[in-house]
Design brief:
The protein is α+β, with helices and mostly antiparallel strands and 627 residues long. The protein has a seven-stranded mixed beta sheet with strand order 1-3-2-4-5-6-7, with helices on both faces. The chain has a seven-stranded mixed beta sheet with strand order 8-12-11-10-9-13-14, covered by helices on one side. The protein has a six-stranded antiparallel beta sheet with strand order 23-22-21-20-24-25. A hairpin with a 4-residue loop joins strand 13 (270-275) and strand 14 (280-284). The longest helix has 24 residues, at 571-594. Residues 2-18 have low confidence and may be disordered.
């Protein structure tokens, strides 16, 4: 009797173990949820995922516990008996031939829309015949067969689909991106008074520093607040995201938060906001709102001894950053690297107007007393400060640039005949610096040689006046930067009217930090990546070399709403960015450290463009990326 009981117990244990670890079909939703875990990448918030293996020899399908077995290799070696190492497993499992031991995939579930997608690893080179077979095998063994679609997440499968080799329902990244309702931007926690601002109605937007705010569109600037919940999805390299990370305040996207009664019931009350990788919590709190920490005043260096235009086409002087600002200096350093590498171009005919002329303009136009009066405005008088800054910017724009400077700039521009349009950009000592990126704080302006409207004088004044942008003033104040120690230089170079694509990349893999790589946002033509129009999405992807297999991986997170679902860059163009990035990162960091512009090595935030029909790569800007 004891033996029978023991036998039954063992049978039941094995049965329960197998059911807990894997099933051969998904017959109900709870079964899927019990097996689900997080996807291996953080591309999408609040997505549930179950890993799937098809065993060729056994002709058997396994949906397995994706929390217990982090990787397909774990399940195949521990349960299915694969006895090779990870390198051999990758070679057998991700190649383009029919000689495979296993077929591997994820089935992802989007809870908010009740949609399901089958996804291969971006490194998988599975041929169309096997994809069709594998999809149909999965589809036969799930209860949601009418909803399952195949996710085109890499250039390989996008190409197969364009050739009409895939005979299954397919979707691009935008199918998922548009169905995502939540997105984690910056993980942190904070206490504050919950307030709501309807920016779509252009109402006054002057929140207090003790508030946690809910906003329904991306603002032009981030106010000094304790935390932000926004209803609009963001790209990871937008100005809002970069500034939020620089401040380390909790920021989260919830596209449905505006009408949530549970949230609206908390308006005007003290709450605690906690943001995490895949969720956030907002609840009433009795905790005290921490007093604002006094920030140590930062007094910046500015050097007015350089009294002539600085040609950035020649070797950039060692200590010039304190005379022309970080942005102009960085372009000069990029030009040095360009001459060594010859694999990219930088904006032609670049030069800088040094701080000296900005300072002289203030003296010549007797502006210092008005500036001092603005500095004396109490910090909590936000509306008054905004009003006075706006009036002062108008004063600067209506002033006159020193004729000697205008003559120098115009002679410089007229010394060439290749371009008529030139871009005038801010280059302060309070942006693109270590610990303070200043993304989007200041303005740029285009001047056209010989044009009576888009004049050089107007362009210089527009850039100078943006030193007193409310968003710039506020951000400097927040970080304790002494305004009087700041100065504005102007970076000038030819403009880019014939962009085929423009983008921003960071020289790290922001979604799979296990793999070194790059994260890229790129858009068609001149449409902004960092300040997109509402409901306009760009191509967003990360890429890396797949360890143990050697293939180049491109994994899409979203696709451009302006390019009919087609990738903006081809694989050759992407690989060029990928190969260039680590070299550029190493060389620029070496130059920064030699010039004492940085104390440690940073990833780069690179702005690039592909120009003309020949798709010539230009690196327009590079600065330290600070997360």
């Amino acid at each position: 009797m004891k033996k029978i009981v023991l036998f039954l117990f063992l049978c039941l244990t094995v049965l329960c173990y197998s059911q807990d670890n894997y099933v051969n079909s998904i017959t109900k939703k709870q079964q899927f949820l019990n097996l689900s875990g997080k996807p291996l990448t953080d591309k999408f918030t609040n997505m549930k995922s179950v890993k799937v293996v098809y065993d060729y020899a056994a002709k058997k399908l396994y949906f397995f516990n994706s929390t217990r077995y982090t990787y397909h290799y774990d399940f195949c070696s521990q349960v299915l008996g694969f006895n090779g190492d990870i390198g051999e497993f990758n070679k057998q499992s991700y190649n383009e031939t029919n000689k495979r031991t296993y077929l591997l995939a994820n089935v992802n579930y989007l809870d908010n829309s009740d949609d399901w997608v089958m996804e291969l690893a971006a490194s998988d080179e599975m041929n169309a015949g096997l994809i069709n077979f594998f999809f149909n095998e999965i589809n036969k063994n799930v209860y949601f067969k009418d909803k399952l679609k195949f996710y085109l997440n890499s250039p390989h499968v996008i190409l197969l689909n364009s050739k009409k080799e895939l005979k299954i329902p397919t979707v691009l990244s935008d199918f998922i991106f548009k169905r995502i309702t939540e997105q984690s931007i910056e993980n942190a926690s904070s206490i504050g008074i919950l307030k709501k601002y309807d920016l779509q109605k252009k109402e006054d937007f002057n929140p207090k520093s003790n508030e946690i705010i809910i906003i329904n569109t991306t603002p032009e600037f981030i106010p000094t607040v304790r935390g932000i919940i926004i209803t609009e999805l963001q790209t990871p390299l937008s100005h809002l995201v970069l500034l939020a990370k620089n401040r380390n305040i909790p920021v989260y996207v919830d596209t449905k938060v505006w009408n949530k009664q549970s949230v609206n019931n908390l308006l005007g009350k003290k709450v605690e906001l906690i943001t995490k990788e895949s969720s956030y919590s907002l609840k009433a709190s009795q905790k005290p709102i921490p007093a604002k920490k006094a920030v140590k005043e930062i007094v910046l260096k500015r050097d007015f001894s350089v009294t002539d235009l600085v040609d950035l086409e020649t070797e950039t002087p060692v200590n010039i950053v304190n005379s022309i600002g970080s942005k102009a200096t960085n372009l000069g350093l990029l030009k040095q690297i360009q001459k060594e590498m010859r694999s990219f171009k930088t904006p032609e005919y670049a030069f800088a107007i040094p701080f000296y002329y900005f300072n002289e303009h203030i003296k010549e136009n007797d502006l210092q007393n008005k500036i001092n009066a603005m500095y004396a405005i109490p910090k909590d008088s936000v509306k008054l400060l905004e009003k006075e800054l706006k009036a002062f910017r108008k004063t600067v724009k209506n002033s006159k640039v020193n004729p000697e400077l205008l003559k120098k700039v115009e002679e410089k521009l007229n010394a060439q005949s290749d371009f008529k349009n030139f871009r005038f950009r801010s280059s302060t000592n309070a942006e693109d610096m270590e610990g303070f990126n200043g993304a989007g704080l200041y303005d740029s302006k285009t001047a056209v040689i010989g044009d009576s409207v888009k004049t050089v004088e107007k362009a210089i004044l527009e850039v100078w006046s943006s030193f007193w942008n409310f968003r710039a003033f506020q951000e400097r104040d927040l970080f304790g930067i002494n305004h009087e120690s700041c100065a504005m230089g102007v970076l000038v170079h030819r403009s880019f009217p014939d962009e085929k694509a423009n983008g921003v990349l960071v020289t790290r893999n922001m979604y799979r930090d296990r793999y070194a790589g790059i994260t890229v946002n790129v858009q068609l033509g001149e449409e902004s990546v960092v300040k997109p129009e509402p409901n306009v999405t760009c191509d967003e992807f990360y890429c890396h070399n797949f360890n143990g297999f050697g293939s180049f991986v491109v994994d899409y997170c979203s696709t451009s709403s302006l390019n009919n679902g087609k990738p903006i860059l081809n694989e050759t163009e992407i690989k060029k960015l990928f190969n260039l990035s680590p070299i550029l990162e190493r060389k620029l960091n070496n130059l920064w450290q030699k010039r004492k512009m940085a104390k440690r090595t940073y990833p780069l935030d690179i702005e690039f463009k592909y120009l003309g029909n020949e798709k010539q790569l230009y690196i327009k800007q590079a600065r330290a990326y600070m997360d």
